[in-house]
Amino acid sequence: MAKKLILLTCLFALAMAAGAEQESAIRVRSIQQEKPVSRARRLSPVVAVIENSGNTPAKVKIKLVLPPGMEADETNVTTLIKAGKKTKLTWAIEADEAVAGEVQLQVKAADTTVASASLPLQFLQPVKTKKPSYIPEPAPVQTPLLIGAHNCPLWEADKFSFWDQVLNHPERTPVLGFYAQENPEVADWETKWAVEHGISFFIYCWYRDGQGGAIKTRYGSAIHDALLKSKFADKMKFTIMWENGNKGHSGVTDENDLLTNLLPYWIENYFKHASYLKVDNKPLLFIYRPDILIADLGGIENVKTAFGKMRQACRNAGFDGLYLLGQNSGLNLKGLEEMKQIGLDYAFAYHWQVPDNPQPEQAIRAQMEYIGKRRSLGFLPEVVTVSQGWSGWRDEGSIWKIPPSDYENLLRQAKDFIATMPANELGSKMLLLDNWNEWGEGHYIAPHREFGFGYLDAVRRVFATNATEPHVDLIPEDIGFGPYDTAFRTHAQREAALDKLVGKKISKGRTPEAGLVAWWSFDEDMNSPVAFDGSGHGLGGKLRDIERAPGIDGNALDCRGGAVEVADNRALTPMNALTLECWVKTDVADQKDTWFVNSIGGSYGYSSSTGFRFGLVGGKPCFEIPVTKFSHHLLDHADLPLGRWVHLAGTFDGKIMRLYVDGEERGTLERPFPLKPSDYYLCLGNYNVKHDAHFTGLLDEVKLFDRALSPEEVRAHYQSLSKPD
Fold first, then answer.
1. Residue 276: count of CB within 10 angstroms of its CB
2. Superfamily of domain 146-469
3. How do residues 455-502 score in pLDDT, each as one tens digit?
4. What is the Cα–Cα distance from 683 to 566, expressed in whole angstroms?
5. Largest alpha-carbon pair distance within the chain?
6. Is 149 helix (H, G, I), strand (E, B) or coil?
7. Which pLDDT tens digit goes with each residue over 421-439?
8. Is 412 in contact with 459 (CB distance < 8 Å)?
9. Which is it for strands 430-434 and 146-151: parallel, antiparallel or unpaired?
10. 503-721 has which fold?
11. Handedness of CA 156, 160, 165, 168 (dihedral sign)
């Protein structure tokens, strides 16, 4: 088979002079495999992007180390990367049989390792390529229990940002790629994979969009456009979990709203459908936040009364009642007691919150202890849930993952526990799996890059009673179907074009200011999708749902929740000294914890100790360079003036932070530590793109220096654009 190294960027013919001192900053920006998943006996391209953010060219030796069973030609490359540039390399890797391992990338300069990265890579078992007219009919296996999986339907074609966490964790990439869930073929693949491994129903998260009046939904395409229009719709049952967690927006206004708007919609659109899950001729309805429903209806007794009316309405519609299941993810005794008092039939967990970053065996033990303890408390009978992992959408909190071999052990323990439950309870007939496809939060069992069909195969081994081994797990590539990620790929191409555009080097000032790292003046055309860096360093940013307005000099950002996203670059985190300055204007008083410049976050944590930020706390200007989480806020003693342009500056000389308002020093704070480099993008106009903690007002003339400006320089900068009130 062909094994070829493809250089996707030019290798520069220039050589560095012998003995010349290097001032390079080399890092691996990314290493990814091009295909969602690899199949043995087919080439799998792996792409690495290596950046030199230094100010001189760097000659580097790049080595790809492959695990046993994988091969590629020319795994050693020597190349020159120009200052401030990136180089992109692609290796075509292959394997003869199913194999998994970690690909290592090593980058050396002058025989010293300056950067490294790794990529988990799995090749699925080889299969012959076929060209059927459609996806082969599912071959369901039989199980002694009804096995359901929670299904997270966030993956719509235009919701690109939901995949951001998966870009940070490429091992989670679904076999379907960054798919658009509204495609009926996507539903057919999911149905085929689920029923062939023993999963007979999905519990779709169901989101209402607004309360009161006619029903409008969000993220409903997975049911309405995909599942219910799919060829295999009769092969898979489904039910819904009412995601009423967004208080005041996704619940109900009162009992009348519940009984005359919400429930009739569910009955007509879901409960009456042949594929909706019913046990004992009773539809199952899962409720995510019973506590919010109590608040919406004004008390426990009101909810209990409403539940009685809901069950009667279902009987009137031809059913024998309604099973109501309430969610509680731990041992919240008050919540469990309230769930019993309002008249729910069963308790369940959407996910088990296991603390302290547990190892797999600890995560398994904790879940089984939760399940056993809840039964001993005797509040409500349980429908058992088992969880595969957790990370949160930004790697916040406890992070853990149970690999497939340990997951099989968890399933066997759950199976044994369920066998001890009273035969007349729903919990003796059913098991819930968390989660089919919560790619962002880090709990998922659907086929994906790291473990392939490992989790599903574990379910099949534990529960299938008529399964034959070995079985073949088809993927779209095997039969010439797909791709299903066209929308995301188109979006990625647009982003790549913007990446090139934002790197344009523009010098706005006639005489460069000493130490100026970046200058965003926002003076481009009103419709420009980018904000250029006027310092000449090419550190421009992309506009994200934000517009321009007249500024103090040219245009400004009109901050209402959008932002400008400047890609992370080590130059944007000066370690020993810095100055951050800008002009702001707002008519909104007392803005609490709102930010207009932020680089805090990234892989070190959502509220980490890296980077810096500038914003308002309690209406007062605040400059922060943390040493530990949330530390070192330098706060003005007075509120930000309203209705006029205000110049703000924060300086740090390696020891002391200083805050200036309109050229006058307003406070100091000792901080005798260097900055920690941030791997988070720099956000202008907000704390984060589409974040609630956004500044409301105008932002203009943002400058970043890698030195502390003197008080005289700060005052001069203020006076250069200040205007009479």
1. 18
2. Glycosidases (3.20.20.80)
3. 999 999 999 998 877 889 999 999 999 999 999 999 999 998 998 899
4. 6
5. 88
6. strand
7. 999 999 999 999 999 999 9
8. no
9. parallel
10. Jelly Rolls (2.60.120)
11. positive
